[in-house]
Amino acid sequence: MAAAVVVVLLLCACSRPEPTAGERLLGSWRAQTRNIHTILNFRANGTWTSQVRIEGDLSRIIEKKGTVTGTWAITPEGRLMMTAIETPIAIGWEKGQPLSFEIVALTDALLQLDNHAGRKLALERVKIKNPGAGSQFVTVDLDPIVANLRTGGTQDPPRFVCLSIGLVLETEGRATVPPRVREAIVFHLSALTYADVNTNEALEALKGDLHRLVNPYLDGAVSELHIKRMVVTTQRRVVDEFLEKSVQTGKGRADKTAG
Fold first, then answer.
1. CA 87 to CA 101: how far, in whole Å?
2. pLDDT digit string (tens) for 164-212?
3. What is the pTM of this model?
4. CA 256, CA 241: separation in Å to the nearest integer?
5. How confident is the model at residue 54 (pLDDT cuts 50, 70, 90)?
6. Which residues fall within 8 angstroms of residue 148, CB to CB, at 6 or more apart?
7. How far apart are the C-alpha atoms of 4 and 24, rounded to whole Å?
8. pLDDT at 62
9. Residue 128 and residue 27: Cα distance in Å, rounded?
10. Which of 3, 83, 122, 209 is most enclosed, with most CB atoms within 10 A?
11. pLDDT digit string, tens, across residues 19-36
12. How many degrees, rounded to 5, is the angle at CA 37 between CA 195 and CA 178?
């Protein structure tokens, strides 16, 4: 009798319940139609974000739409309920309007949604490498980045934002970062204003935005993104000093790129 109890306990301990639809949904998903990429990210706190990126020649992101945010939940009937909270771009989805989607397919790699009203989505999960015997975490320092901030009005002087960024990548070999990652960061920064970068809260938000921005370019291998140094200035002399110091400290090539 005691042996039977031990066997049952071992079986219970070893078996894992299947992940729920909500658990399987978490993470980043990507849909592509010609040169238009849609990145949809579901978070465990019940919120979601979506960005549209337009790709030009040589896989360079030449335009990025605003970030749409909202809330999500799985209904008792197993449908995905999504509500838009912030809609800075025209997406045909009114703020506060809930949409109910049938989950046609949901696997580790594929998500298909249908609301039977003309909205059909087919997305692939942004790949995240599974840790293995040969996997390791490598920090890659990007070349110094300089971009022009967008002015907030006629009284707002032109400003530069200078960044030193480090990426922690999970890789099984030599870590490389394609040039389009820096190009995407410059493009994103050039759409920001001084108000978007002048507080600690804004800096934390920027780190999260940049992480989500570059991760798809590296197949989800970005474990962490660190802003090691940031300078916001109206003076070109300060920009030159930033670039010179970056070279002296070995932070990469001084590539003066302005958005």
1. 19
2. 999 988 776 667 888 888 888 998 898 888 988 888 888 888 888 898 8
3. 0.49
4. 12
5. low
6. 158, 159, 160, 161, 190, 258, 259
7. 34
8. 41
9. 10
10. 209
11. 788 888 887 888 877 767
12. 80
- With beta carbons less than 8 A apart as the criterion, state whether 28 and 13 touch: no
Retrieve residue 118's tokens.
């003309």
* Amino acid at the residue 74: I
pLDDT of residue 75: 92
Eight-state DSSP code of residue 168: E
201 backbone dihedrals φ, ψ, rounded to 5°: -65, -40
Q: Where in the chain is the domain with CATH 3.30.479.30?
A: 136-248
CATH topology of domain 136-248: Tetrahydropterin Synthase; Chain A (3.30.479)
Q: Range(s) for CATH 2.40.128.280 in the chain?
A: 18-125
Amino acid at 122: A
| Least-confidence region, from 7-11, 27-31, 133-137 | 7-11
**pLDDT band at 50; cut points 50, 70, 90:** confident
Q: Do 34 and 124 touch, CB atoms closer than 8 A?
A: no
Mean pLDDT of the chain: 77
Class (C level, CATH) for 18-125: mainly beta
Residue with tokens 């030449």: 62
- Counting beta carbons within 10 angstroms of the beta carbon of residue 254, is it exposed (0 to 12), middle (13 to 18) or buried (19 or more)? middle
SS3 track for 76-113: CCCCEEEEEEECCCCCCCCCCCEEEEEEEEECCCEEEE
The torsion of the CA quartet 176, 137, 207, 213, rounded to 10 degrees, works out to 40
Any idea which residue has 């942004």 for tokens? 126
Question: Nearest 10 degrees: CA dihedral of 148, 89, 113, 97?
Answer: 140
